[in-house]
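Q:
Just now I want nothing more than another pair of eyes on a protein record. Here is the record:
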Amino acid sequence: MTALTLYALTGAALIGLGLYGLIAARHLLRRIVAFNLLGSGLFLYLGAAGARGDGPDPVPQALIITGIVVALSASALAVGLLVAGARLSGRATLPEEAE
């Protein structure tokens, strides 16, 4: 097993954990963390995919750096909206579904 295969499998595992967290978590902050975990797995997988061949490909590296900046700003916005929503409603979880 090469290092690139290990990175790709680790990225796939992080993507799976992030998807599970998005589906299973009721607390909105946990969903934000799960979404960030999913994004980190995608960045790791994209980096492993871009490193194949003769040398590193600069396009996936540029996409990863841009994605990290966008993910950081989106996470800050999501946490800010979560705090504002929690102040208004008094809770930071999703409402119960009507059965």
Q: What stands out?
A: The domain at 3-89 is CATH 1.10.287 (Helix Hairpins). DSSP finds three helices and no strands in the chain. The two ends are 49 Å apart (CA to CA).
